[in-house]
Design goal:
Layout: E1 4-6, H1 12-22, H2 30-44, E2 50-56, E3 62-72, E4 83-92, H3 101-115, E5 120-123, H4 130-135
Parallel strand pairs: 4-5
Antiparallel strand pairs: 1-2, 2-3, 3-4
Length: 159
């Protein structure tokens, strides 16, 4: 297996591309890819709230990535440091699938987040990826719900 390594801000464009191409139902246009790349590079920098592990392709680019975003929660006995992480992206290029890359990058990410004091982990699992996550200790929770609320489009001439 190729070497799993901690991502750096220089990997932000490739992580954003993998997320756009392989995870999102509607791939991002160039504007949104650039915005995501800039924001992710800042968040992957030392002191940032993003952690990612990647596997490089033999040529250039990434074969696989796992990205987690750390956020504070109120502390409790199960969250003593008050830290949670949303696993935001786990993706592997189709040519590199079925080699254990997703599991390797995600396991490295979870180990790193645990060392950072994270004890609560959340993610969205498709039917196809659910067995991978279950094998790493994730469990379904029917109580979790999700909603997206976008602001109404502004009318012409509005401030």
């Amino acid at each position: 297996m190729e070497r799993v390594r901690l991502a750096t801000p220089d990997d932000a464009a490739e992580i954003a591309r993998l997320r756009s191409d392989l995870i999102l139902s509607d791939p991002l246009d160039d504007h949104w890819l650039a915005l995501c790349t800039t924001m992710l590079a800042e968040r992957l920098a030392p002191g940032g709230d993003a952690r990612a592990y990647v596997i490089d392709t033999p040529n250039s680019g990434l074969a696989s990535c796992s990205l987690g975003l750390i956020h504070p929660v109120l502390p409790a006995p199960k969250y003593p440091k008050g830290l949670a992480a949303r696993i935001h992206a786990v993706a592997t290029e189709p040519a590199f699938q079925r080699r254990g890359y997703a599991k390797a990058t995600l396991a490295a990410l979870l180990d790193h987040l645990e060392r950072d004091g994270v004890t609560l982990y959340e993610l969205y699992a498709s039917e196809g990826s659910a067995p991978l996550y279950a094998g790493l200790g994730f469990a379904s929770n029917p109580a979790l719900m999700r909603m997206t609320r976008l602001p109404p489009p502004s009318s012409p001439g509005a401030p």
